[in-house]
Amino acid sequence: MENPVPAFDRIQCPALHSKIMSAQQAAELIPEGANVGMSGFTGSGAPKAVPLALAERIERLYAQGKNFKIDLWTGASTAPEIDGALAKVNGIHTRLPYQSDPIGRKRINEGSIQYIDMHLSHVAQYVWFGFFGKLDVAVIEVAGILPDGRLIPSTSVGNNKTWLDLADLVILEVNEYQPLALAGMHDIYYGTQVPPNRVPIPLLHPQDRIGEQYLRCDPNKVIAVVPTNKSDRSSAFKPADAASQQIAGHLIEFFKHEVKLGRLPKNLLPLQSGVGNIANAVLAGLNDGPFEQLTAYTEVLQDGMLHMLRSGKLVHASATALSLSPEGEREFVDHIDFYRDKIVLRPQEMSNHPELIRRLGVIAMNAMIEADIYGNVNSTHVYGSSIMNGIGGSGDFARNAYLSIFMANATAKGGELSCIVPAVSHVDHTEHDVQILVTERGLADLRGLSPKERAQAIIGHCAAPDYQPLLQDYFDRALHGSVGKHTPMLLDEALSWHARASRTGSMKPAQAGQAPQAAQADQATEPA
Amino acid sequence: MENPVPAFDRIQCPALHSKIMSAQQAAELIPEGANVGMSGFTGSGAPKAVPLALAERIERLYAQGKNFKIDLWTGASTAPEIDGALAKVNGIHTRLPYQSDPIGRKRINEGSIQYIDMHLSHVAQYVWFGFFGKLDVAVIEVAGILPDGRLIPSTSVGNNKTWLDLADLVILEVNEYQPLALAGMHDIYYGTQVPPNRVPIPLLHPQDRIGEQYLRCDPNKVIAVVPTNKSDRSSAFKPADAASQQIAGHLIEFFKHEVKLGRLPKNLLPLQSGVGNIANAVLAGLNDGPFEQLTAYTEVLQDGMLHMLRSGKLVHASATALSLSPEGEREFVDHIDFYRDKIVLRPQEMSNHPELIRRLGVIAMNAMIEADIYGNVNSTHVYGSSIMNGIGGSGDFARNAYLSIFMANATAKGGELSCIVPAVSHVDHTEHDVQILVTERGLADLRGLSPKERAQAIIGHCAAPDYQPLLQDYFDRALHGSVGKHTPMLLDEALSWHARASRTGSMKPAQAGQAPQAAQADQATEPA
């Protein structure tokens, strides 16, 4: 961790100069048992020094036989300096609303972190409602501090507005690495209220600006200002593999079909897309595809959308965070004046708001771990019990979308696991919320289908050939042996594929001479 | 079916006089294979003559060896004259979005009706989007027709606006039985659009009127006007039983606690409540309770809310339908001038709109079939495969509510079934959407709890004493034997309680000498 000379030009509020200190000093100010709200969304804009210093402090305290844990609230996932470091030293009691760190995941799945996996749109309001208790400390990365104490936001907004509004104490990290030219890209809406005083949110188009450029912050609450100079966690951009390209191809054919039938405008509707291999392929496919003047209303702006803005296919993008590869980051920083009026970064309350997603008619495209033959989707759990990451914003988007699309490879672990199963081992999106399923095998359009019709569409279009006869056999027997024939289910068998895989490593029926192999949740495929 | 002399004073549009005909004549105008949108929500405002005449026609056609089925779309549940009669003659191919008729249920569960169980807020927009194809015929009950062809709505609004806007052909039933004084109670919002042209819905309070009193209808589309004179299907009002009163008691204590902590205003927030025994008890409890100046933003206005309006505890109620007992109906009709400015009846798009439910901060109180120890809720299926009724609006309300509450008796079938189970056999509301569970045993507040903490709260507070040790034993063993310890689950055992009950009639472990008793879906307890 570099710790440069305090950069006074980024800290323009004179009242805060006396609060400039090291990360170690700031970390000492966080009380044991505190509820701590940190910035960060997909690693972007997360504090980089104080959490690490806090982890070091916790490690020292444990070595002295003392206990020290915090409850950690964020926007979404963060970086190894937060979730990794704090989980490693066992410094987290309760974690919400989302995390994707491997050490954090291990702690959760061994049972030592209490993890609350939430819809991202619910977080800020539940804290405002007082449902999780008082927020003690906010630790927020910013790009700069204005003379009056307002903050130039960093590369993500997440829940920062709420943390700054509600925390008793505020610690700011001023990250010189983040371009000051970010100023002007953010749109912080200050019109939220608690019921019964809420009013309509005046946003009509993805590019609308309805708030302020800067985050408000009461300088009297600021107890520490820590200068840093470090890049966001970023992942290398992987070119799409063949299966992802096939998924993208099916989706683009589907969009063409919908436009032809008049069920989608020629420029589609605002796109929401997650991160990962499949999402990259879909965006690359759209970048090469026939649709022009596209817009995005989404959580994260990843390389694929940057490419589309560059090419002109995408004219506007609204998100709550950037999530760029090192190359994407360079492209963004080098051409920030080109991108500034095409990108709006908002609080996640707004990017994920049911009111806005439904009004705009977003096309929601999310990855999944598995779906069952009736269209229930599991986004979070392996073998029903181990968390992968979390539901994130997928529920906010799927439930309120114009089109709710879920995507996965048809198999995982080299074909040993089918992503289409008799019954999912955990439900995050119910049959009522899932319209389109896509694998590299094909696309199942579930709109207007009953459960039995859905089963035939999913088995026929999405399942891998190895599993198609097994699924059809299950369905046929369920059709006869089930108590009811509305959603045929064999209660003794519905979860048997997962049970088998947890013992043998494969969902395929045992064959003579096959050695069982114990399952590890960590071996499972991470959703794209 | 009474078929009185045409009542010209209710049919004031001269152009439609020539369209007055019998139900039998009108039923002849519905084509085979048509998509038919009918009025009706909990039996209120459903057409009473044409569907019955259509069923008679279908029966005759089948007797002649001819096939005749329609796809039937409604607001929600209807009456025996629709779902019962048409299901009995096997006249329904696809049914959406909700039904509760016993004959309809039997047909669905034997597999002969394709049933699409939907969020009620999704219905109108999916039809506008073209996802279900063209609407051929609308059959709508009204209280009267104005000179210019506009319609005085009946006792429910449901999807009538959408059906009238989109259907090629319209059949009107003018029901003289419905009081003409209904005029003025409805608020039909005509500001809806299809994306990308949607704008904020300008509703800020449950009592706000943002639309028109009457339904628009193009007289040129009207092919038949059928006079009727018949009351809505109504159910007797049952006084609350002891268990329901205990559930109500727990809830009211909880509300008091939340007000004391400042997490709810003194007059609470707009109430949403289903129908049935538990809902009646809760409303009766609120009527006797300490809260004043209450409001309701809900789907149906049942006797309990009428009593609360009468007593002054409730000052305003917004719904999409009345759902009254015969006594409630008399009270309502006799004092309609008292009730008119206190009740607003809206399209179900508005009563169930995520934007409005979230803005208003509704307190959502819904019945369930069962919940599991992690807070997943099953509202629809028995033994995972047989539909009871449907999800209705519970998802619209639960997901977007200020407080999301689900209620059930701790056991069903005389104690043979536990309503708290290791894993629900079908998920309608995921762990992410369920905050409060209540049974007569107590209330579990799941806010801010991890899955394992939720399990202890639910087992400890909600489960029946007979099942508590069994659930605790499952949970303890899962905590050790599960692949992951985040949401401990024994894949071989999670659905075993349902499997056992489907064979023996009881979730309790087999005891020596106990004779197995095959399960019938119909035997299961209907959600309150």
UniProtKB/TrEMBL annotation, chains A, B:
Pfam families per record: AcetylCoA_hyd_C, AcetylCoA_hydro
Gene3D superfamilies in the cross-refs: 4-hydroxybutyrate coenzyme like domains, Acetyl-CoA hydrolase/transferase C-terminal domain, Glutaconate Coenzyme A-transferase
Start and end residues of each stretch annotated as Disordered: 502-528
Swiss-Prot/TrEMBL GO biological process terms: acetate metabolic process; acetyl-CoA metabolic process
Residues noted as binding CoA in the record, renumbered to the chain: 369, 389, 393, 413
Residue spans of biased composition, Low complexity class: 509-528
Limits of the Acetyl-CoA hydrolase/transferase N-terminal domain: 18-227
PANTHER family: ACETYL-COA HYDROLASE
Protein name: Propionyl-CoA--succinate CoA transferase
Species classification: Bacteria, Pseudomonadati, Pseudomonadota, Betaproteobacteria, Burkholderiales
